[in-house]
Amino acid sequence: MGNSFDHDLFVIGAGSGGVRAARVAAGHGAKVAVTEEFRVGGTCVIRGCVPKKLLVYGAHFAEDLQDARRFGWDVPECGFDWPALRDTVQAEVARLSGLYRQTLDSHQVTVLSERATVTGPHEVLLASGRRVTAKVILVATGASPVLPSIEGAQLGITSNEVFHIEQLPRRLVIAGGGYIANEFAGIFHAFGVQVTLVNRTSQILRGYDESIRDRLQQISLAKGIQFRFNAELARVEKIGDGSLRLHITGEDPLACDALLFATGRKPNTEGLGLTEAGVVLDDQGAVKVDEYSRSSVESIYAVGDVTNRVQLTPVAIREGQAFADTVFGGKPRTVDHSCIPSAVFSAPPMAGVGLTEAQARKRYGDIKVYTSDFRAMKNVLANRHERALYKMVVDAATDKVVGLHMIGPDAPEILQAAAVAVKAGLTKQDFDDTVALHPSMAEELVLMR
Ligand SMILES: Cc1cc2nc3c(=O)[nH]c(=O)nc-3n(C[C@H](O)[C@H](O)[C@H](O)COP(=O)(O)OP(=O)(O)OC[C@H]3O[C@@H](n4cnc5c(N)ncnc54)[C@H](O)[C@@H]3O)c2cc1C
Ligand SMILES: NC(=O)c1ccc[n+]([C@@H]2O[C@H](COP(=O)([O-])OP(=O)(O)OC[C@H]3O[C@@H](n4cnc5c(N)ncnc54)[C@H](O)[C@@H]3O)[C@@H](O)[C@H]2O)c1
């Protein structure tokens, strides 16, 4: 691509979307630079999906070690060493970040380590004061945790800090009721921390199927995770012994040793110079883009969380790939945002794809709902009472499976495979025609009545 710019493509942000776009565009022959103000890998690798999932694995040993006794193993009293897990997870994060860096290097992508702001349709300004020009600019700056604007909010931490805490608190309050809140509730509860979730609405995990999230709430309560619903934090106060007192509107204050805000994330566009350059943002501050991820400025594109379409890593990666193929590979492509499977790595995990029962009822009117409510074989022998729940939502007119939702051991692993069938538009009959794989939990999918 011959032009008088320093680069064909300048990417701001080396996270899930930015790294993929940079690497693929370079593979298509473009001269690419990417800049990262924090650590290469972005949220998912450094302080999101990856370290979170490793903590989930670490947390699961609490139950596994207990259950092992019912399977004949002589397990002595086991202690848990938080710094040991924290540090091995951080070492793995550093290794992965290095691999991302290597991939960029091996594709001849220039990697810079400083903050960039946009100063025009083809120009960015680096923190060091250097100006760089590019034919195309890709904004892949992700999102950041939002804190409620209440007095003392700075006394709490967010998912950015939670991976690094010095020691486990005795009592942890988590504000919020979404993905991050429920995942960390499960993690810290397993480590022996007394966890209370403070939620301003009456339900956790809005958007997930109601029966499935109710089941998570029941199981969490039975484990000893506490919930405060319809509870709005009003003020946070540090008291003499170093602990925190949380003032909640209309309720008794709550004492804790640490407060984790899991109250949503906002697109990283503040101070980025986008509006000044003519890029239109929505009322949440997200970059408005068309189906090819192009903003209102012809030479500026955006992918991933900063566009606030679906805040998930595989979506950011697909958007980055489609952008690079479209703009530098001569293969225009869009990303299909329908039927995206997702999971909450709670304890037990839940996963879903397609429409919830309520959404399907609204869309199709006449639907059929099949469920399987069962205790996993392993849980029966372990004398663990929690039950798994699978739900299949079917359009009555066509027999098509339009939604699949589950909670139970390994639900995300099972759902990923089943999502192929839902995405392909298969029918309930197609599921029924498939012979069960026995004994498994996944066989419930083809045995639903
Ligand atoms: C705790 C947590 C758990 C999560 N778990 C999951 C999960 O299990 N599964 C899943 O699919 N998703 C998960 N997510 C969401 C997932 O991490 C994001 O959707 C994904 O990382 C988005 O990728 P991105 O490329 O848009 O942005 P990011 O990965 O956030 O990358 C953006 C990068 O841009 C950099 N940057 C920002 N501004 C500038 C600037 N001006 N100059 C230079 N660099 C800049 C940032 O430092 C960052 O590294 C989780 C998120 C969190 C917070
Ligand atoms: N397993 C996964 O795929 C995974 C895991 C973690 C995060 N993520 C992504 O990251 C995004 C952010 O996660 P999250 O859990 O922060 O957001 P979320 O949108 O899932 O939940 C935010 C919660 O905070 C509450 N809330 C918002 N403002 C509040 C306020 N001022 N006071 C009190 N409560 C408030 C909301 O009611 C909601 O319960 C998710 O939307 C998701 O896309 C994905």
TrEMBL record:
Keywords: Disulfide bond, FAD, Flavoprotein, Oxidoreductase, Redox-active center. Residues 8-320 form the FAD/NAD(P)-binding domain. Residues 340-448 form the Pyridine nucleotide-disulphide oxidoreductase dimerisation domain. Gene3D superfamilies: 3.30.390.30, FAD/NAD(P)-binding domain (3.50.50.60). It comes from the Bacteria. InterPro entries: FAD/NAD-bd_sf, FAD/NAD-binding_dom, FAD/NAD-linked_Rdtase_dimer_sf, GSHR/TRXR-like, Pyr_nuc-diS_OxRdtase, Pyr_nucl-diS_OxRdtase_dimer, Pyr_OxRdtase_I_AS. The keyword Disulfide bond applies. Its cofactor is FAD. The keyword Nucleotide-binding does not apply. Belongs to the class-I pyridine nucleotide-disulfide oxidoreductase family. This is Glutathione-disulfide reductase. The gene is gor.
